[in-house]
């Protein structure tokens, strides 16, 4: 994505078929999408999540650790979550920038089994420039990740991690995504990078229209 959007009027937030008003639970934009349900994306059992008690809206984030705009969005999303305790955040790693992106995504997913996902996620985005294997190890150390345990979990949970990444790589394009970052906010699809004010307004609109709304937001 090539810019950060700052106006809700120009933000093409799309109601997702199957998440929107008057639709069934199936996303029906293609033959593949017809088999994808709302819960398959929001409730994937392996995808890392931040789920505060009493949350009233879910944001699903599609991101790649080697995506520059994803790196910039990390602080925006962190600020949103810190200021709004009613948001559940679901991480769907979509490593589209090559093997190192896959390596970073796998490490982040595996870190949840030692309770370090949030710390490692932040550390992976904290560095400047592109990640490499050494930078991933450095980020893990900075996040307090037990490296031998991480390596063991990468082996132990390999099938689960691989299956999660495969599901995401199938689901993301099936619902119309072309790159990272992208978000599902309530019942709406918001492709691209957003500033904090726009993201907050999108959340507010999604709360007002929990079953979907068929047009872009107005100011």
TrEMBL record:
Q: Which domain of life is it from?
A: Bacteria
Keywords in alphabetical order, please: Disulfide bond, Oxidoreductase, Redox-active center, Signal
Q: Which GO terms describe its molecular function?
A: oxidoreductase activity
- Segments forming domain Thioredoxin: 23-208
* Signal peptide from the UniProt entry: 1-22
What PROSITE patterns does the entry give? THIOREDOXIN_2
The record's listing under Pfam families reads: DSBA
The identity of this protein, by name, is Disulfide bond formation protein DsbA
């Amino acid at each position: 994505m090539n810019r950060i959007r700052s106006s809700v009027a120009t933000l093409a937030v799309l109601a997702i078929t199957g998440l929107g008003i008057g639709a069934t639970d199936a996303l029906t934009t293609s033959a593949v999408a017809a088999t994808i349900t709302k819960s398959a994306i929001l409730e994937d059992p392996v995808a890392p999540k931040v789920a505060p008690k009493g949350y009233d809206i879910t944001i699903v984030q599609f991101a790649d650790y080697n995506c520059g705009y994803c790196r910039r969005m990390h602080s925006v999303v962190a600020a949103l979550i810190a200021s709004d305790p009613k948001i559940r955040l679901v991480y769907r790693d979509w490593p589209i920038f090559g093997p190192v992106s896959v390596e970073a995504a796998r490490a982040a997913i595996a870190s949840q089994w030692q309770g370090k996902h949030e710390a490692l996620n932040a550390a992976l985005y904290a560095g400047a420039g592109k990640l490499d294997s050494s930078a991933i190890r450095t980020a893990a150390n900075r996040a307090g990740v037990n490296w031998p345990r991480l390596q063991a979990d990468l082996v132990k949970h390999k099938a689960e991690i691989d299956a999660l990444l495969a599901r995401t790589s199938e689901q993301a394009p099936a619902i119309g995504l072309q790159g990272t970052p992208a978000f599902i906010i309530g019942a709406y699809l918001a492709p691209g990078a957003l500033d904090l004010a726009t993201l907050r307004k999108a959340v507010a609109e999604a709360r007002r229209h929990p079953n979907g709304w068929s047009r872009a937001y107005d100011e």
